[in-house]
Amino acid sequence: MSLTVLRPSFCSSSMAEGSEFTSEVESSFQKFAVHGDTKATGKEMNGKNFAKMCKDCHIIDGKNVTTTDVDIVFSKVKAKSARVITFEQFTQALTELAPKRFKGVSQEDALQQLYGLVVGKEPANAGVTKVDKAAAVERLTDTSKYTGSHKERFDESGKGKGKAGREDVQDTSGYVAAYKGSGTYDEKVKEA
């Protein structure tokens, strides 16, 4: 028993016309599919990344298309027991979202406009901490300006030596961790 997926006729014709357009959409699909998952191959996208793609590409506008609509469409196009969608299912999802996002436009034009939102987009990293470039921070982290005993904690390249750069490292090789007279026990026993 073979399972065939029925697509609207305009979907296959518009895909055939702009094959480079399709490859750009597929490139964006792959970028969002691997976002946040080190084991992802880019051939399948999970629901979280699909929702992120819809948000980052401004498919979700809050009025016509909401996050709930995106979740419903994702559940509709995926296989019953699967948690991910393929690129073909992804195009089906966009086909279903296009008329909702762009009302009053023919379905083919709405799909092309939706593809225009997706093409060339990558996952945005919102809320990522940026490195501070303030003069005070730069001055404090410049190891070439350190003097005295602090200078000894860094090698020529400015990389820290760690414990090896300290002079006050205690010898803890004795019988007890805080025992400072390692190897003097025999001498003390002979004196008594």
From TrEMBL:
Signal peptide annotation: none
Family to which this protein belongs: Belongs to the TPPP family.
GO biological process: what's one of them?
positive regulation of protein polymerization
Return the GO cellular component terms, semicolon-separated: cytoplasm; microtubule
Q: Which Gene3D superfamilies match?
A: EF-hand (1.10.238.10)
> Mind listing the GO molecular function terms for this protein?
electron transfer activity; heme binding; metal ion binding; tubulin binding
Region of interest (Disordered), residue spans: 147-169
Q: Where is the composition biased (Basic and acidic residues)?
A: 149-169
State what protein this is by name. Answer: Cytochrome c domain-containing protein
